[in-house]
Amino acid sequence: MRNLTLLTDLYELTMMQGYFKTVNNRTVIFDAFHRNNPCGGGYAIACGLDQVIDYINNLHFTDDDIAYLSSLNLFDNDFLDYLKNFHFTGDIYAIPEGTLIFPREPIVKVIAPIIEAQLVETAILNIINHQSLIATKAARVCYAAKGDGIMEFGLRRAQGPDAGIYGARAAVIAGCVGTSNVLTGQMFDVPVKGTHAHSWIMSFPDEYTAFKTYADLYPNACILLVDTYDTLRSGVPNAIRVFKEMREAGIELKGYGIRLDSGDLAYFSKKARKMLDDAGFEDAIISASSDLDEYLIDSLKTQGAAITSWGVGTNLITAKDNPAFGGVYKLAAVMGDDGKFIPKIKLSENSEKITNPGNKTVYRVYDTDGMLKADLIALTDETYDENEPLLLFDPIETWKKTLLQPGEYTLREIIVPVFKNGECVYTTPPVMDIQKYCKHELATLWDESKRLINPQEVHVDLSKKLYDCKQELLNTYSTPHIH
Amino acid sequence: MRNLTLLTDLYELTMMQGYFKTVNNRTVIFDAFHRNNPCGGGYAIACGLDQVIDYINNLHFTDDDIAYLSSLNLFDNDFLDYLKNFHFTGDIYAIPEGTLIFPREPIVKVIAPIIEAQLVETAILNIINHQSLIATKAARVCYAAKGDGIMEFGLRRAQGPDAGIYGARAAVIAGCVGTSNVLTGQMFDVPVKGTHAHSWIMSFPDEYTAFKTYADLYPNACILLVDTYDTLRSGVPNAIRVFKEMREAGIELKGYGIRLDSGDLAYFSKKARKMLDDAGFEDAIISASSDLDEYLIDSLKTQGAAITSWGVGTNLITAKDNPAFGGVYKLAAVMGDDGKFIPKIKLSENSEKITNPGNKTVYRVYDTDGMLKADLIALTDETYDENEPLLLFDPIETWKKTLLQPGEYTLREIIVPVFKNGECVYTTPPVMDIQKYCKHELATLWDESKRLINPQEVHVDLSKKLYDCKQELLNTYSTPHIH
C-alpha cells in the first residue's frame, strides 16, 4: 500500500504545528461536502471511500518523511518527534460509495483532535472529489445510453495513472459494464474488455488478413474495427467476408460484430446495420467510440443510430465538461471545555457558501413507492420516528413547507460509521456489489432529476433544530469587525 | 517503484498475443504526438518523460500479473510463459521535458518489436498526455502573471493522487514558483509553500488571536488569510494590528502580507493595498487565490489589481477548460524482410488526422536572434547543414515557401535518445533545472505565439523527402477498397 501521508498541503502541517505548540488541539468536526452537482446535473454519486480508508489506515510518517520535513526549516524537533508516532485516533462517518448525494450533505465527516483532522483534509478531498466526479459523469453517460452497455476506455487520456485506475473503478460503480484498464480489472475484480486497434490492422498487409487473423485467434470476442481505411467500402465488407467464412467453417458466432471509431456514427451505423442484416448477421453487434459523451449518445439515440454498445474515453475519464467536483472540507464544530461541541459556521457573501454548523447526519426521505422525496440534514442528537408526522421546509425559502403523515414516508439514515477511535469499523463491498447498489439508488430517483439538462432539483432540507442553530450563529457573526 | 505493467488497455494484450501467435512480431516505429495545442494556445510543453523512463525500466509481469491474466480465459500458456520473461528491448527517442512542442511532432518515438511497442502505448500516452497538459496550462498561467510568482495548490481538486503529485511537478517545470503539495516537494526537491486555512482562524475565539498566534509561530512567513469574516472591516485591520505589534516588538518583517481568497479581488486588493500602505506596510505582499486561471489573472492585471503573488488551484491542476491533451500513438513504419523500414500511414477523412509516415526526427529552426522561426519534421536518414540554404514549405499550402540562406538560421535537433536496446541512456535533470531550461525555451517564442487568445501559429514544416513519402502513400491508399 502506498504511503500517502505527505500527500497534503504544506499549510496543513504548519497549522498542525501551530495547534501542537499552542496546545489548541481540541476535538473538532469537519464535513466534506460539495456545493454543486457536476455537469449541471440533478445528483452526484458518492465514491472513493475505499481509498480514503486505505489512506487513513496507512497514515504514518516514515523516517524519510520526518527527515524531509526537518529539511524545510519550518518545524521544531518537538513537533517532529510528535509526528514520529502520529496515527489517526478519531472517528469518521461517511455516505457509502454508490449512494446518491446532493449538495451540502456531509459525504465524509471527521471527528478528531484538530491536529489529526486538519492533516487528512487534502487527501480526503483529493480522493472523494475525483472518484465522485467520475462516478457521477459515468452515471450520466449510462443514463443516456438507456440500457446499452457503456465501456470505459479512457486510460490513455486520464490525468495520470491513478486517474485511470480509480476513474475506471468509479465508472464501473456508476454502471459501466467494464473497462479497458487491465490494472483496474486486477485490483478490483471488475470486467475488462477490448479487442484491437488501428495498429493491428496496419501491421498486416491488408485489412482482410488482419480481420481474418483476429477472428481465428478470438472467435468468441470478434469485434472488428472497421474504419482504418474506409468504413463502408472496405471495413464493413471485409468484416462480413470474415463472418461468412466463420459461419461456413461452422464456428458459432456470438458476441461478434464491428466497432465504428470515426465519421458520422448515425449514418455509418445505419448503413452498416443494413449491410450486416442483408448478409444474414442480424445479431452482429455495432459498437461505437469516438469522442462520445452523454450528450452525443443521447443525440445518436434520438437519431436512431443502430448502435447498442458504446466505448467512452476522454470525456468520461476526465469529466471533460466539468473536470472538478469542487468538494470542500469545512469546520462544523469545536469541542468546548465542557466536552460539548460548539457549532461553527463559515460565513460568505454568497449565501450558498455559508456552511451548516454542528454534528450532523443525513436522512433520506422516501415516498410509499420507495422513490426519493427529499433529504433531511439533521443534528445527530435529534431523533426521528416514522410514526410521527415529519415537517420539511426549504432552508432558504422557509415558507415552502410539506407535512408528511405517518405511513406517507419512510426514512433512511445514509451516513454510516467508518472509523471509531482510529479503528476501521466498515468493510467496503466488492465493486460489482457497489455497482448493483448504485443501480438501485439511481432507480429511486425520478427521471426528472436524472435528465441531462435542467433537471428537477432534489430538496435538501434542514431540520428545525439545525436551521435554528444556523440562524443563531448567523446573527452572532453579523458584526464580525467588533471582535 | 510502482509496477504499472498492467496499466494498459486489454486490447494491447490481446493484440500482443495475436502478434505472438502469428509470428508477426516485426520491429516497428510508433510516434506519440498531439494534434492541437491545449486551450487554443500557440504551443505546448513536453513533460512526463521521467515517469515514462521509470515505467519502462520497471516493466515486467509478476506472478500475480500472470495469474490474473490467466484467469481472464483469453490467453494461452505459451503466451503467458513468454510474458514471464518479458522486458523492453527496444529504442526510445523523445523530446526532453520542458521543451516547446507543436502539433504532429513526435514527442516520444518507440522503435521495438511490435509486441513490445504495442504494450507500452497506453501508459506512455497516459503519462505524457497528463503532464504535458498541466505543464502547458501552467505556462499559460505564468505568462498571464507577467513575472509575478504563481503557486500551484490544486491538490485537493486534482483527479486522484498522481494527478496532484505529477501535476504539481509539471506546473513547477513550466514556471510555478512552488506547490502546496508536500509529497511532490519530497519526491522532486521543489519548493513547497503555504500558510493557513480558514479553519485555523475558526478554531480560535477570534480572528485577531488566530493571526497573532500564527505570527508568533511563523514570523518569517507571515501571510495572513483575511477573508474569513469580513475582509476590509475585520481581516485587513486585524492583520495590520498584528504587523504593528511585530514591528513594535522589533521583529524584522519580511515575506509577510495577506491573502485574499474570495470577493472582488480587484477592489479588495486595491483597498487593502491602501490600508497597508497607510499603516506603513508598503512591502507587505498581497497574494490572492479563488478560482484563478490565466484569463482571470490577465483581467485582474489589466484592472490594476494590487496583487503580486497568485495561488492557482482547480483550474490549473485539472486544466479545467481543456482537461485532456489528446496525444495519440500511431504506427509510422514496419520493418520489411530486408531490414528496412516500410513507412506506414493512417488515413482519415479529416486531413489533419492523417499521420506522418517513416522514421522521423524534428529540427528547430532559429533566426539569428535565437528566436524560434519554425520546426522541421524530417526523416532520420536526411542530413542538414547550416552552411547550405534551407527551403521550408507549408505541408498543406505547399506554395508557401521560405528559403533561408546560410547565416540566416541555426538548427537544433530536439529529439534525443532515451533507450537503446532496452537500456536507458538518458538522465533526467533535476526538476528545477528543467524549469530553468523551460523558461529559456519560452523565451525563444514570440509573444504573438504565447498570447492567450488567437495566437500566431508556429510553422511545423515537413522535409521535402518526408512530404514526398507521404504523398506517395496517400496515392497508394486512395483506393483502399480493392485491397
Automatic annotation (TrEMBL), chains A, B:
Q: Which UniProt keywords apply?
A: Glycosyltransferase, Ligase, Phosphoprotein, Pyridine nucleotide biosynthesis, Transferase
Q: In which pathway does it act?
A: Cofactor biosynthesis; NAD(+) biosynthesis; nicotinate D-ribonucleotide from nicotinate: step 1/1
| Leading EC class | ligase
The protein's superkingdom reads Bacteria
- Is this entry keyworded Ligase? yes
The EC designation for this entry is: 6.3.4.21
- List residues of the Nicotinate phosphoribosyltransferase C-terminal domain: 359-470
Limits of the Nicotinate phosphoribosyltransferase N-terminal domain: 6-129
One GO term in the molecular function aspect is: nicotinate phosphoribosyltransferase activity
Domain Nicotinate/nicotinamide phosphoribosyltransferase per the UniProt entry, residue ranges: 150-321
- Give the catalytic activity: 5-phospho-alpha-D-ribose 1-diphosphate + nicotinate + ATP + H2O = nicotinate beta-D-ribonucleotide + ADP + phosphate + diphosphate
PTM comment, free text = Transiently phosphorylated on a His residue during the reaction cycle. Phosphorylation strongly increases the affinity for substrates and increases the rate of nicotinate D-ribonucleotide production. Dephosphorylation regenerates the low-affinity form of the enzyme, leading to product release.
State the family it belongs to. Belongs to the NAPRTase family.
Q: What does this protein do?
A: Catalyzes the first step in the biosynthesis of NAD from nicotinic acid, the ATP-dependent synthesis of beta-nicotinate D-ribonucleotide from nicotinate and 5-phospho-D-ribose 1-phosphate.
Matching NCBIfam families: NAPRTase_put, PRK09243.1-2, PRK12484.1
What is the protein name stated in its UniProt record? Nicotinate phosphoribosyltransferase
